[in-house]
UniProtKB/TrEMBL annotation:
This is ABC-2 type transport system ATP-binding protein. Belongs to the ABC transporter superfamily. Residues 7-232 form the ABC transporter domain. Signal peptide: none annotated.
Amino acid sequence: MNQADAIRTSGLTKTFGDLAAVNGLDLEVRVGEIFGFLGPNGAGKSTTIRMLLDQIRATSGTAQVLGLDIRDGSLEIRRRIGYLPGDLALYPKLTGRQTLTYFARLRGGVSPAYVDELAERLGADLTRKVGEYSTGNRQKIGLIQAFMHKPELLVLDEPNAGLDPLVQQTFHEMLREVRDDGRTVFLSSHTLSEVERVADRVGIIRHGRLVVVERVDELKRTAVRRLDFEFAAPVPTDLFAQVEQVHDADIDGVHARVSYDGSVNPVLQAAMTHEVVNLSSRDADLEEIFLTYYRDTTTPEVAASTGADHVR
Ligand SMILES: Nc1ncnc2c1ncn2[C@@H]1O[C@H](COP(=O)(O)OP(=O)(O)OP(=O)(O)O)[C@@H](O)[C@H]1O
C-alpha cells in the first residue's frame, strides 16, 4: 500500500440479493486531499462507506483505511477517523451540549474549548434538546462530533444536508483547514456544486461502479463546452445531428444552444452552412460533464434488460 493513501479499495463489492450495490470498486484517496465521492441516490456511496467502517461486510474485495485492513483494523480505524453518517441517530432527550460531552467522553482526547469553537463557527445551538432540533442543527452536532478530535481522516456522508448557504461556506473553510493541516477528507455527495467548490478530486459512482476519477480542475478543462448561436433565419432542428462532437443541440427558430466536447471546428462548420449573426461561448460547466456521466437515468434492472447501460 502506498503510504500516501488514506483509503484504498481493491475490487470492493457488496451485493444485496441480486443487486450489486457496490461493484468491483478500485479507489485510492490520497493523504491530504479532499476527495469528493459523487453519485445520485442509490449509487452505492453509503454502502461503500459502511464497508470501510466495518458496519457491513464486503461480499468480496479488500480495503485499507489509514493503512489498516478494514476488518482487522476496524477498532483503530474508528478511533482515528471522524465520521458523519448519512442517517445520524441522536438521543432526543439530551441537549446538544450533553450529546457532544457524551461523544467526547467516548472518544477521549477532545478539547472542550475546541468543541466550543466549532459550535460557534457553525452557529450551533447547544442548549436545546436534540429532539427539538431542525435538520440543520442536528447536522451541525454531527459535524462537530466528527471534527472535534482533529482526526487524520474525515468520512462525511452527505454533510451538507440541511445546512444554509452561510453555514456551508464555514463548513467548506473547515474542510480546507483540515486539508491544509495535511489531513484527509472523504466527502460523499449527490450535489455536484458542493463537491465542485471544495474537492481536489472527484470519483463519480454510478450503479455501484466507479465511472471516473479525476482532478476537479482537469474535469473542468475537458468538460463539455457550450456555444450559443443566433442565425439570420430559422434553421432546421437537425442542423448538428451529424456532428459527432455535439452532445446536445437545442434549436428554437433562429437560436441554437449547442454543447460539445473536443474540437470546435466541426460544430462551426455545421453552423456556417447558415448565416450566423451572433455567437457566444460559455465556460465549461461541471454540471454538464456530470450529466454526461449520468445521461442514462434508467435503473440497473432496466438498463440490463435493454442493454442501455452506456456511460459516455
Ligand atoms: N441493507 C440493504 N438491503 C438491500 N438493499 C440495500 C441495502 N442497503 C442499500 N441497498 C441498496 O443498495 C443501493 C445503494 O445504496 P446506497 O445507500 O449505498 O446508495 P447511496 O449512493 O448512498 O445513495 P443515497 O444518497 O440515496 O444514500 C441502493 O439500490 C439501495 O437500495
